[in-house]
Specification:
This protein is mainly β. The protein has no helices and 27 strands. The chain has a five-stranded mixed β-sheet with strand order 4-3-2-1-19, with no helix packed on it. Strands 5-6-7-8 form a four-stranded antiparallel β-sheet, with no helix packed on it. A four-stranded antiparallel β-sheet has the order 9-10-11-12, with no helix packed on it.
Length: 360
Amino acid sequence: MNRNLRFQYHFEPQKGWMNDPNGLIYFRGQYHAFFQHNPYAPRWGKMHWGHAVSSDLIHWQELPIALYPDQAYENAGGCYSGSAVEKDGRLYLFYTSVSRRWGQTQSVAYSDDGIHFTKYAANPVIPENPLGYSDFRDPKVTCIDGKYYMVVGTGDKCTGKVLLFASADLLQWEYIGVLFEGAEYAECMECPDFFKLGSKYVLMFSKIHEKERAVHFVTGDFVNGKLVNYTISRPEWGPDFYAPQTLLAGERRIMIGWMYHWGKRAPLGCKFAGALSIPRELTLSGNAVQNYPVQEARPLLKKESPYVQAEGNRLILINRRKQKTIWQLPFIETVDILEDTKSVEVFVNGGAASFSYWLK
């Protein structure tokens, strides 16, 4: 297979490495997807924020890099993952700044045109983890019932936690407390997202250092700064889906994930690595989160693929080396497949379960 083969329907950078989607937002008539990016090689390095825009969530145009790691408070790892929010016509990017002296802190940049960004002079806006742990990253800012909240992932190497902050102006942040925690879920809850879906509140986080790279959804009630009366679901089970983020577009809650993984290496001579998943709309079935391709992508779905087999309640994915991965499901009623040049994304029972699979 051509080592520089390109996707048809999935965004990937022209060159260099990409991982987590960042700053997903609909701003001034376009969908914006920022992403973790090393523009100099197809492997992880000091993080920049790449940038792409789309009018239909399927075809993307790559724009110039939005954030360079050019400040003293970014001189170690660079500009790690974060989010975007619009206030009074201005676009704000929140990100984790990583330095040798201060470690992981939270910073902000802003733009009036959505392309050229200025870093806030008083960065970092959250200079330390209130719990003192070194892992303190991936700020996701959202507006719920007229108030701005930020969730940040952390953990003490044993118990993962998501911290909650609040602000009136996006620049001064007050620590509220631990929104959710659990030793059984992660030692650090990466890339958290917090949003309202129907009448429920949903916390989404990615589980670091787990072999299958799990993404969990915690659905419950938001009371006094904590999630209570919750249930936990996991609709995505594939090996090539991690660190998703959501945006609100009209009435739709749309999720996009990183379709690659840390153990994967670009083929020798390939100049780029990593891609974004097909955008998916999130819905609730009871308290369980389901994910299914957005309306714009549904004409691409089909029922059969040489890489996908459904036998009874077993789903079998087959890569180009004829290697099989088998999942046992409670039942299979429907299977919808989005096949691209290098991947398949399989949606079972209308999105109750999904499987993202790189074919290389």
